[in-house]
Amino acid sequence: MIEVFGPLSVITLIFGGCCSNVYALEEILKQEPDSGLLITFLQFVLASALSAPTQLSSPSPNRSSGKPPVPFQRWAVIASMFYAVNMLNNWAFAFSISVPVHIILRSFGSVWTMAAGSIRGKRYSTLQIFSVALLTFGVIASAWADAESKGKNLSTSAPTSMGSFVSGLSLLLTAQILSAYMGIYVQDTYALFTTTWQENLFWSHFLSLPLFLPVASVLRRQYASLAATPPISTAVLSLAAFPTIGPAKPLLKLAEMTKTVPSGIFFLAVNAITQLACISGVNLLSSRSSAVTVTIVLNVRKLISFMFSTWLFGHELSGRMMVGAGLVFGSGALYGWETSWRIPRAKKAEANGIRKEKR
Q1: 60, part of any domain
Q2: What percent of the chain has pLDDT above 90?
Q3: What share of the chain is helix, strand, coil (3-state, %, to 5)?
Q4: pLDDT mean over 126-149
Q5: Per the domain annotation, does 187 fall within a domain?
Q6: What residues are paired with 231 via a beta bridge?
Q7: What would the 3-class secondary structure string for 91-133 be?
Q8: pLDDT class for 254, splitting at 50, 70, 90?
Q9: Mean predicted confidence (pLDDT) in 241-262
Q10: pLDDT tens per residue across span 177-211
């Protein structure tokens, strides 16, 4: 299991792992669009297997805080929501939802998270709300520009029925709303109970595995389809162009060692490994930051994925994408300043004023 110690490691896991994951996902869907369930299953199996040792060998979380351990029922709820969110997100690909449209819809995560927090009584400043709205607009603008530069069709006039397209969008919308609530629920878990991000990573994946039993036949069919894809040798050249940072470094070497492996199976494995790195970083960030901060970081990561993708396929950055990049990074910095500097200083000044009045 990957050990994470500081902010730099979190950045490497999230940006290196998640960006590599998007690349592998595009390669899989290019060959077999109907592979969402298998992608999800392998990710869950790998995460469960590699995070299990941390629960068996590591000492129990520190109980000195006086907080009780997380009840099993709460882990079961988290696992059920996590399973549903991942299944819905990956299932949407079966309804002819392209990766650009997929990322555009998921860029609304920060909005749903903030809405869920507001419903549960959490209050956000005007500047926080403005920065999240601006960031979401920036990601959408960048995604749309990226899709146009690749010649991908984002309209409902694609060679698929309107009903199928709407069904895919509905799945993504449902997943985003559920994901927003799950983010707040997990945040409450860290606040109310004694736990670690490794514990959350293990239980959220392990307890979800039995839920795949009803779709076992679908998993076998999807695996057979990927096993019938051409050997990996032709994919090595395209992989060589990918920036080898963080968890992506071993990928080219791995590709050279597995030239006879079906390309679909190879990228399926790469997708699962990089997803583990990505979700490890997200879990660690969740244990240290607010749910909205997590979605902000992930939205910035999405933009970087777009920029990598544009560079990989030889497209120049359009004016609209540059504007989108400025909006995302600018609004991310604005949210960070408001959340980490201005609001804490204002609260501290208010507390000092109250103490002076009492004297």
Answers
A1: no
A2: 14
A3: 80, 0, 20
A4: 78
A5: yes
A6: 262
A7: HHHHHCCCHHHHHHHHCCHHHHHHHHHHHCCCCCCHHHHHHHH
A8: low
A9: 59
A10: 898 888 888 888 988 888 887 888 899 999 999 99
Distance separating alpha carbons of residues 272 and 333, to the nearest angstrom? 31
Q: Please name the residue that has the structure tokens 């060679």.
A: 159
Query: How many domains, in total, are found in the chain?
Result: 1
Report the distance separating Cα 310 and Cα 307, nearest Å.
Answer: 5
Q: Give the mean pLDDT of 257-267.
A: 81
Per the DSSP assignment, residues forming a β-bridge with 262 are 231
What is the rounded CA–CA span in Å between residue 287 and residue 290?
Answer: 8
Q: Is residue 143 part of a domain?
A: yes
Cα atoms in the Cβ-side hemisphere of radius 13 Å centred on 41:
18
Nearest to 211 by CA among 83, 94, 90: 83
The amino acid that residue 141 corresponds to is A
Length of the chain: 359
Q: Output the CA torsion sign for 244, 282, 30, 150.
A: negative
Helical (H) or strand (E) element with 324 = helix 319-337
Least reliable range by pLDDT among 48-62, 142-156, 333-347: 142-156
**What is d(CA 251, CA 346) in angstroms, rounded to the nearest whole number?**
47
pLDDT of residue 177: 87
Residue 174 is part of which domain span? 1-55+71-231+261-358
Q: Considering the chain, what percentage of its residues have pLDDT values greater than 70?
A: 70
Q: How far apart, in whole angstroms, are the C-alpha atoms of residue 301 and residue 298? A: 5
- Of 174, 171, 154, nearest to 112 (Cα)? 174
Domain membership of residue 240 (yes or no) is no
